[in-house]
Amino acid sequence: MPSLQDQLLKAGLADEKKLKAHQKEKKKQRKQQPKGAVQTDETKLRAQQAREEKAERDRELNRQRNEEARRKAIAAQIRQLVDTNRLDRSRCDTDYQFVHGKKIKKILVDGTMTDQLSRGRLAVVFVNDHYEVVPEPVARKIMERDEAAVVVLHERTQQAEQDEDDPYAGYEIPDDLMW
To answer: Structure pTM?
Structure first.
């Protein structure tokens, strides 16, 4: 099989004079470089650098996508936990006030829920722009995923210690007292 140079000569697309000038120029470039040095091509270097930059951008995009997917999965888990474990507040008539952020919010609960909320057996969570009341073990599971979702959860151990040392334990708070 003849070389490309021979084929171009036979086809009449190149002549002997241009071929010899090109070979002479290549030989001159090789001799100018020191021995052992590898001839580098700037276009290859730029192409390699562009590939590396693109790979880095792709890695960053993949990391962001994975993080977003992880956040969505956690939000879905929290929604499912709340939907399956929230307490029914349809017949509640007592306001329960609490602080969320810098604002005071209130939800309707009944008397037993108020007592259990203050003792740390129930918790208030904020999901889908709504406040819901869930049992304490469910609130702990939600806190493992996202602590900001749990708005109110009183500690049980602190409440028990206060009950033992409370000098006013014998004085009951009247039911009709509104704060």
So the answer is: 0.58
